[in-house]
Recover the amino acids of this structure.
């Protein structure tokens, strides 16, 4: 990734992190932010992780909040889990969150399959 695209990506992550600091009132607006965040993550390879970490820090910590993991809307919970699975892919073999948060994440992941 060249420096200009890395700077652009950092700016996008920072913007998305700020947008999630206070949850949008509408489900559709929230899903749009989550879809954009996931789209950004899909472009990042594991070797880009170190240089992008600080820019993503706010965003990926926002997504591990209980308000999102336990959101009343199933679509939102699925998008949050999809995003977090991308974070896990990028940060492997290190875990991006502490054990307590990872336990909550895995509970939501397993719970999302119950409705299928």
């Amino acid at each position: 990734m060249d420096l200009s695209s890395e700077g652009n990506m950092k700016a996008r992550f920072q913007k998305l992190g700020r947008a999630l600091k206070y949850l949008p009132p509408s489900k559709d607006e929230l899903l749009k932010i989550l879809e954009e965040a996931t789209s950004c993550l899909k472009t990042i390879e594991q070797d880009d992780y170190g240089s992008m970490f600080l820019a993503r820090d706010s965003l990926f910590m926002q997504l591990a909040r209980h308000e999102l993991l336990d959101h009343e809307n199933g679509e939102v919970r699925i998008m949050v889990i999809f995003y977090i699975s991308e974070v896990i892919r990028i940060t492997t073999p290190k875990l991006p969150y502490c054990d307590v948060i990872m336990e909550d994440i895995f509970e939501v992941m397993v719970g999302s399959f119950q409705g299928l």
